[in-house]
Amino acid sequence: MKVMVTIVRIIVGVLFIFSGLVKANDPLGLSYKMQEFFEVWGLHGFNSWTLLMSVLMNAFEIIAGFALLLGWRIRLFSWLLLLLIVFFTFLTGYTYITGMPKNCGCFGDCLPITSQTSFLKDVALTLLIGFLIWKQRYINLLFSEKPATIVMLGITILSFGFQWYTLTYLPVVDCLPFKKGNNITEQMKMPANAVPDSTVITFVYKKEGKEVEFTADKFPADFSATTYEFVNRYDKVIRKGKNNEPPIKGFALSGESNTDSTRFVLEQESAILLFCEKFSDAGTDWKKKFEEIYTAARAKNIASFIITAEPGKAKDALAGTRFADVPVFKCDFKVIETAARSNPCIYFIKKGTVISKYSGKEMDNIKKDISVATAQVRWPLTPAEQPADSTIQQP
Question: In sequence order, which residues have a C-beta less than 8 Å from that of residue 273 and are 6 or more positions away?
């Protein structure tokens, strides 16, 4: 029995450590996933707390997983793990049954799994943790109390320190579709093996005061305009497709006239993209750094663009800077949250391929990419070439 308990303890502990580390690599990702749940439930007031909840949850998974492996405070952590997994099982079960949101984000973006797999995994973990609580008398401390406590203190510090690092300097392992080396244009295309949804057109008519539905190939034998009154028509999905969404959805850049300038930006030979979801949350430290970057890029005729969810605040935010003439494009905030895990975040791209990306704290690093880049023949944004709808025009 002790051998079985040890095996189960290792399985559960490693799974929680792995799950916590994967999500700790990108705490904002879990934060956004929590917001999806709250939006589904209409609990928008919790959105401002999701990042704190994400950091605490990720840290707890790591800490509890190690505590289980070490046998440290086993009574406390086994019950806490049970409460946590019951909560997770409710969330994954809700997602599996309702399809909202599409997945629970249990292993972050690095290891996406279906809602069914997530639910079954949590059911299995619930049973395993229940077994450990039942047989916890067979779990002993791996070390003596004092060394184990010191180890757990170090793990606690590292679990929070790692998340501070990833929030400040971007995820250590980038699993998002905007990662270094990916071509944004290609990522916006449907996968080659995509299988579309199978749908059938369904009509809703009213006959003798009652609504009836039928498909285009099964009209009633007595159908006539005098007998049936049209109410509605819709497409009914009869078989869900597979892999039928592009990795990058909704990446559309436009300015005041709402003209699509995405292609213009992504076809630049080389370009600097500064993502700033909200100017109001970005502070001012980035401005001095970006001035130097903009000057270095301009010296090589490399275009610079600012992409934001707050185009209306761009003029005030850029006033008085040497880059006040940089074209500003608006983009959906959800897309920016995926592209930029810091605010601001800077990219160096070539023909739409991400060569490098940095958080606002280390923006200066992009000057290395500019220094080795091939100088463009001329400044790409002549009055005839620049997109007419950018919020701020080049002079």
Answer: 265, 304, 305, 306, 307, 346, 347, 348, 349
